Every structure is written in structure tokens, then in C-alpha cells.
Amino acid sequence: MRGSPGRQAGFSLLELSIVLGIMAMLAVAAVPRYMEEINRNRSRVTTENTQAILDAARAYRLSKGTWPGGASCINAISEMVSQSPAMLPPGLDVNKYNNTVSTSCTAWTFSVDQSIVEDWDGVLASNLPGTSIVNASQNRIRSTIGIPGSETANDAKLSRVAEQNVELNRMRTNLLLGNNDIKEVGRIEAVNAAISGLAEASQLRVNGVSQFNGEGTFQDGISLQKVVQENTSCPKTGAIARSSTGVILSCQSGII
């Protein structure tokens, strides 16, 4: 409070104590919200980084046929960082909670282990598919994926690589391509084909009966391989064949 003339102006000890008390209460109220925001950001970044490691390991397995990091995958992160081009950025071996991120694998699975903080291990376990709490006292979680195409969630997806389970390579419904092209096809086996536009082929072979409903134009000669004897019976009027010497014959009223 302000003093009388001749006395020094300022705050009394009581006033200062009140101000400090108010500031302390504000700080106490703000700190939990501040820490929650920090942990929320940590959780988000850790989720993204963990998913990046799992995605890179899956891509590595697809490309090379093995999990990264040796037989037990201990060095998986560093190996994926060292690829050219790099499959992961550096620095993902320590998470945002300043805890080491470790990797391991079996013949069928790849796992990422890391410790979080209290109450937030469950959040990450919920946000990351295939993740569970493996050590509650250490807030340790484990995220696991299977070999590409083996996860239950992929049973309804068509695999782009050859699988031991051929059902993962088999389409069970109509394939709609939105009028886009199919290229790099080696062989097509089909029961029926309905083509509304132009069909181009360097060679066309048809086994069995064929029917042309429109006009046909041939830019080269036609070789008839059906050989018949003149003045013999024939099954269908209008059918044409040739004699053994190459004379073209036609079926007229049952006689050729």
C-alpha cells in the first residue's frame, strides 16, 4: 500500500503474500492441463513414428523376403535407416518419452516394444492396431504385425504378391477399373468375353463354332482347310469348302 509522505512506496508483506498465493493457485491449476497437452502431443507423434516403423518393416519384408535387422531383428531400425533410399528417418530408436524403442521378430511376426508413461500406455494401445500392454508396471507396450497378407484384417484384400494361401490372390467379386487400362498381361483365360469396342490382335485362333453378326473385311486371302468332294451331300446350305485341288465349293440345297 502507498505510505504517507516521507515513507517508501511499495507492497506490504501481506499484499505480496496474497499475490504469490494467487499465482501459485493459477500455476497449480494450469500445470495438469499443460502436462496433458504435452503428453497428448507425445502420444500422437509416438503413434505416427511407431506406425512408420511397422510400415517400413512390412515393405522391407515384401521387397527382400525377410524381416530387417538380422535373425532376431534387434537392429531393424538402424538397418532400415541405412537403406538407399532410406526407409526411415534417423532418430526413431528413442521415442518422445525419451525411452528406447526396441524391435524383435519371429518367422511370422515383427514387433516394436517401448515404454510410455503412466495412463498413456493405454491410449497408444488403443490408437495402434495390434498393440497391447506387455508390462503394466513399466508402462511398456508392444505393437506386432504379421507377414504381409497373413493379418486377419487382410483376409478381405487382394494381395499383389504370390501367397501360399491362394485365396489371398483370388478375386471373389467383380473387378471394377473405372474405364482404366490393364497392361503387362501375359495370358487371359476366360469363359466369355464381351467387348463393345475395338479388339486388336496380331493372331486370332478360335476353336469351335464362331459367328459374325456384322460385315467382315479381310485385308488378305482366306485359306479354306475344309476339303470335300463335289456332288456329295452337305449339312448346311450356304456353307463353303474346297475340293482337293482348291476349287471353292458351296452347299446348295443339301448338295455341294
- Beta percentage is 5-15%
Counting DSSP E segments of at least 2 residues, the number of strands comes to 6
Euclidean distance between termini CA atoms: 132 Å
Structural class: alpha+beta
Shape call: elongated
Secondary-structure element sequence? HHEEHEEEE
InterPro entries: N_methyl_site, Pilin-like
Protein name: Prepilin-type N-terminal cleavage/methylation domain-containing protein
Transmembrane segments: 12-35
Keywords: Membrane, Plasmid, Transmembrane, Transmembrane helix
How would you describe the overall organization of this protein?
Among the domains are: 14-154, Glycoprotein, Type 4 Pilin (2-Layer Sandwich), CATH 3.30.700; 226-256, no CATH class. The protein has helices at 13-64, 76-81, 121-127; strands spanning 102-105, 109-115, 131-135, 140-146, 240-242, 248-250. The protein has a 4-stranded antiparallel sheet, covered by helices on one side. It has a two-stranded antiparallel ribbon with strand order 5-6. Helix content is 25%, strand content 11%. The termini are far apart. The radius of gyration is 39 Å and the shape is elongated. The chain is built from 3 helices and 6 strands. The chain is of the alpha+beta class and 256 residues long.
Question: What would a concise description of this structure say?
Answer:
This protein is 25% helix and 11% strand. It has 256 residues and is α+β, with helices and mostly antiparallel strands.
